[in-house]
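Standup notes, structure subgroup. Blocker cleared on the zinc ion input:
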Amino acid sequence: MKIAFHGADQGVTGSCHLLECAGKRILVDCGMYQGGRELSEENAEPFGFDPASIDYLLLTHAHLDHCGRIPLLVKRGFQGEIITTAASVELARLVMLDAAGLQEEEARYQNRKLRRKAGKHRAAIEPLYTTLDALNSLEFFGRHALYDKPIDIAPGIRATFIDAGHILGSAAIDLRLEENGRKHRILFSGDLGNSGRAILRDPTPPPAVDTVVMETTYGDRLHKQLRPSIEELYDAVNRTVGRGGNVIIPTFALERAQEILYYLREGVERGGIDHYLNVFLDSPMAISATEIFRHHPECYNGKTLKLSMDGDDPFSLPGLHFTRETAESMAINQIDGGAIIMAGSGMCTGGRVRHHLKHNIWNRRNSVIFVGYAARGTLARRIIDGAKKIRIFGEEFPVNAEIYTIGGFSAHADQAELLRWHGQTGHPGTTFLVHGDPDAMRTFSQKLTHTRVIMPEQGEVHTLGYSPP
Ligand SMILES: [Zn+2]
Ligand SMILES: [Zn+2]
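Run returned:
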């Protein structure tokens, strides 16, 4: 029984771990590296194992940094079975197709640039994978996992997906392994959510196990409270709409968009928001993700489930418009005030939100509300950091709109929640920390007691079954 680390080691993205047991090779996640050119170039590198040798891929959830290299894995020879929850199958399809489209677009752009420079005699750049590759990979999705129902993957390997409370369909995966009469229980956290959020249930308390592989994204930090953040959102909306302005919310398509819709609906119903609003969800991907949320009430928490059983749509409010078509999106520019415009991308690095910023950010009446993470070097980060002017599509605009950064909507557990979760795993012999920046990981590791902590490097292999001296 062995585990090898092939991604999200000493870093947040590219999750990929390989288990070997009872003659089978099982991958847990196959995510993409994200953030900056160097990291994205890493996506094209060899996996560190032969994709054709993998029997099973267990997917914790459908974020790009967990499922984004599946089409590449298939393109390079994977023939096994992919097992995940029903909601993750649908979301992963959306996420992989979107990624394929973006890579095709990027390759076309680079090739045009090359052609201008080098004429006809140049080597064409290939996308990492194409839409066709993404579609092909869908054929390998097999059995659906239900929360808390064990699946016998193969003799000696039994997996149970437990709710991770992170995004729709997300799971931690508990594996009971047996090889030559030896038993070992290993738990992969996937990404863990915060407790007390709007749509999803809290993470299910994990079982006691021998080994834990866990994320540490916010291993060194505590989040702001959710309730005050919701109040802050209402306040920002009321102030802006009250003075006749528009609100731009750069939005992540998956989970955050649906949560913001949920809070806006609650605000309108309960009087937290005191104006009639025109709300535009101006992102084809966020619209598709919202449809998928509606298909999966089995993932809702009690309150959201009750709403939907009572015939209410948790993600709808009066004045809500889904604008999928480009022409509809452009028509929003004619609106002079009183509109909430939610558009991607969340970090303003691409997508329709840049058009809306161009039309709104120079006007004092308007506001821009950031509700998610903004990486260094992105347009969102520059605005948050107080830039007086920004460039969009080669034109310069003054930043006159009011800028809000509301921090309490994270989909990730903070240090306290991570510690609480780990505390329920019953003093595992070994804890591997992954999916975190080295500083966050080190800080978190100092908080763990009664366990051997390892922060593996890329390519490290460990034998399972270590017993503390
Ligand atoms: Zn995630
Ligand atoms: Zn992740």
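Discussed briefly. The longest strand covers residues 171-179.
Next: hand off to the docking folks.
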